[in-house]
Amino acid sequence: MILRLTALISALMVSCTAISAVTITVPEDIKIVAVNGQEINGGFLSKSQYKINAGESTLSVRYSGYYQHADNSHDILKSGIVAIKTPSLKDGETYKLALLEAPKDFDEAKKYKDQPIFALYNKQNTLLAQQQGDKAEQKNWFSNTVLLSDTKNAGELSTAKMGGEISNQNTLKNEQKVNSENSQIPLIQLWQQSSKQERQKFMSWLAEQ
């Protein structure tokens, strides 16, 4: 029995060591949407770190900038998908993605999103790889992905979703409608009390849906 347990533990240790990984950090305006063609499911909170296998990889990324204006309106500017081929990444090391010639304001960002430049650095801040997006080749990476470039499109998407919800709610009982309407009040309060960063994360997440 002891020999079997020892063998099992040894096998687990070998399998764990065989799966090597590296860490890639990203700023809020860069989204990794796929690694080696495998889509990464995004959540409400944007990730700042990703774990991928060591070795060479192809990172599918895009620029997503959130800009809030003086009148409290906002815009989300998004680029198309850009593929970055990495060199052989070492197990246990940390790397970072960054934007080259990043836009400083909204006007610059409107042009930058057409041809963003992504760069990969190691922990010594040495440039390992870079790739510029090509406006002429930009297209949806996934057939069910909606790329939004401004608040108008985001508003249209939200309106369409709300319209579908209202249509479904018409089939419910009156009591359920009242409960649904009341449940929206805390959401409004949460939005009013949220910070700029929290609103940015929510709107970026909504644009991904």
Provide a brief overview of the structure.
By secondary structure, the protein is of the alpha+beta class.
The percent of residues in helical segments reads 25-40%
Largest sheet properties: 5 strands, mixed
The strands making up the biggest β-sheet line up spatially as: 4-1-8-9-10
Please give the radius of gyration in angstroms: 22 Å
Structural key phrases:
209 residues; alpha+beta; 5-stranded antiparallel β-sheet
Structural features, described:
This protein has helices at residues 2-18, 106-112, 151-169, 174-193, 196-208; strands at 21-25, 30-35, 38-39, 49-53, 58-68, 74-78, 82-85, 94-99, 117-121, 127-132. The protein has 209 residues and is an alpha+beta fold. The chain has a domain at 21-145. The chain has a five-stranded mixed beta sheet with strand order 4-1-8-9-10, with no helix packed on it. The protein is globular, with a radius of gyration of 22 Å. The protein starts with a helix and ends with a helix. Mean pLDDT is 73; it is low at 14-18, 139-167 and 171-175.
Would you spell out the secondary-structure blueprint of this structure?
Elements: H1 2-18, E1 21-25, E2 30-35, E3 38-39, E4 49-53, E5 58-68, E6 74-78, E7 82-85, E8 94-99, H2 106-112, E9 117-121, E10 127-132, H3 151-169, H4 174-193, H5 196-208
Parallel strand pairs: 1-8
Antiparallel strand pairs: 1-4, 2-3, 2-5, 5-6, 5-7, 8-9, 9-10
